[in-house]
Write a structure and sequence with these properties.
heterodimer, A: alpha+beta, five-stranded antiparallel β-sheet, 2 helices, B: 223 residues, mainly alpha, 2 strands, 63% helix, globular
Chain lengths: 209, 223
């Protein structure tokens, strides 16, 4: 490569051309992939809804019968202002609801949960939608890795009592993992907040169409 | 002066291995070797980006002036990482859910940049592509090896969750080599990465010494 001194505008033009070229290429790629990525995100949502609301209890599409409620401030910073509550219905009666909840206090930021609750306040199921916890340690909250998260099914705010809704290390009744307390603590807290959110808004959530 | 293909392959895989010899790319090496599967995933994504970036830089090498080459290289690596990220998210979504976490980290890996500067900026397209590819595979092997050791001693398994990365056929790889309650936690945590990576570097040098090779501290700039 020649080391002759070139005027600044030559370098500027070269760098500018590369920036513009790759900028256009990236914009095109983004444009092409935008729709498929949105579809995938929706599929993921339907999948996680399906895991917390059993198919047998509804004859509608919960995404179509969703309502928006003001978010509880439990999610902490950056929590969305509104929480979408997906409602499962059978014959016009609400048979279960599901909503996303940010469990704050995770090791790598908030852990996004999908929480399904039956009209009587019992958990239909809980799944972790996304998280940034340590691979091999905190990621055991993921249903694909261990069945830890499934033990919440059937529990409610009174069962166990509210002061037992903690990991064992904090005097509660839920197991932490060996080597990881922070993540399960965040998830247990997030589920408790979710149940409190349900209790505070259940009349709105149960409204018939 | 074109390096022979055999030389390129040997350098990438062993003699000038990015991790074990040049000690580059230490950030993902520490962060992503908690299990062999994570090391493998990170390595494969990096190899793809390295091969593509080396190819592009070699194509454009006569049009980029010396003074602005570093910003242009970084631009090329970052653009490739973004392409891989978007395309995988759209059309390889299952794989993306596993690897997605690792992909943005590739930008912060200095191994791709080192190979662009040391090799692709001076060599024709095909050797550059091969250099990127085999340096990437060498990186993958090193990360998988470090991950395997950390995983076996740290939590007693080998290739745990490989099926999430590679598909259902890979279940046979998921082994439990130690009892379930076995595990020396420190090896899963970041210090374990330093320990095992360091020991691997020592092991590589002992092997090289035993086979009568001269140990030299290879820099990123040796071709």
């Amino acid at each position: 490569m020649s080391q002759a001194i070139r005027p600044t505008w030559v370098h500027a033009t070269i760098l500018g051309t590369f920036c513009a070229g790759f900028g256009i290429a990236l914009a095109l790629t983004d444009d092409i992939t935008k729709a498929p990525i949105k579809d995938r995100a929706l599929e993921d949502k339907m999948n996680s809804l399906g895991q917390v609301i059993p198919k047998s209890i509804h004859d509608n599409n919960p995404v179509n019968d969703a309502i928006k409620l003001p978010s509880p401030n439990a999610g902490g910073h950056g929590a969305p202002a509104e929480t979408v509550v997906y409602r499962a219905m059978k014959g016009g009666e609400v048979t279960g609801v599901a909503f996303e909840m940010d469990a704050s206090g995770g090791y790598g930021g908030p852990v996004k949960l999908m929480i399904g609750v039956a009209p009587d306040g019992k958990l239909l199921g809980v799944r972790v939608i996304s998280h940034k916890e340590t691979p091999g340690l905190g990621d055991k909250i993921d249903a694909a890795k261990t069945d830890w998260i499934t033990r919440f099914t059937g529990l409610s705010l009174g069962n166990p009592p509210v002061d037992k809704w903690k990991v064992k290390k904090d005097g509660g009744q839920f197991d932490q993992f060996s080597g990881a307390t922070i993540t399960p603590r965040a998830v247990v807290g997030g589920i408790r907040h979710g149940l409190e959110f349900f209790a505070a808004n259940s009349s709105r959530m149960m409204e018939k169409k | 002066m074109s390096a022979s293909y055999g030389r390129i392959i040997k350098d990438g895989l062993w003699e000038n291995n990015g991790v074990l010899c040049m000690l580059l790319g230490m950030c993902p090496t520490m962060a992503m070797t908690g299990t062999a599967t994570n090391g493998l995933g990170m390595g494969l994504a990096t190899a793809a980006v390295m091969a593509a970036s080396n190819l592009m830089v070699a194509m454009f090498r006569n049009y980029v002036t010396h003074e602005v080459r570093i910003p242009v290289y970084i631009l090329i690596v970052a653009a490739n990482v973004t392409f891989v990220d978007l395309v995988m998210n759209a059309w390889m979504h299952e794989l993306y859910k596993v690897l997605g976490l690792f992909i943005p980290l590739i930008v912060s890996n200095c191994l791709p940049l080192a190979r662009l500067e040391a090799f692709a900026a001076k060599e024709p397209v095909l050797p550059s592509f091969l250099d990127g590819l085999f340096m990437g595979i060498g990186f993958t092997l090193a990360l998988t090896a470090i991950g395997a050791v950390r995983e076996m001693i740290g939590q007693g398994t080998l290739f745990a969750d490989a099926a999430l990365l590679l598909g259902n056929w890979a279940h046979f790889m998921e082994l439990r080599v130690m009892p379930a309650d076995w595990g020396i936690l420190v090896l899963i945590l970041p210090p374990g990465g330093f320990l095992i990576a360091g020991l691997m570097v020592v092991a590589k040098r002992l092997i090289d010494l035993a086979s009568g090779k001269e140990i030299k501290m290879a820099g990123a700039h040796s071709v």
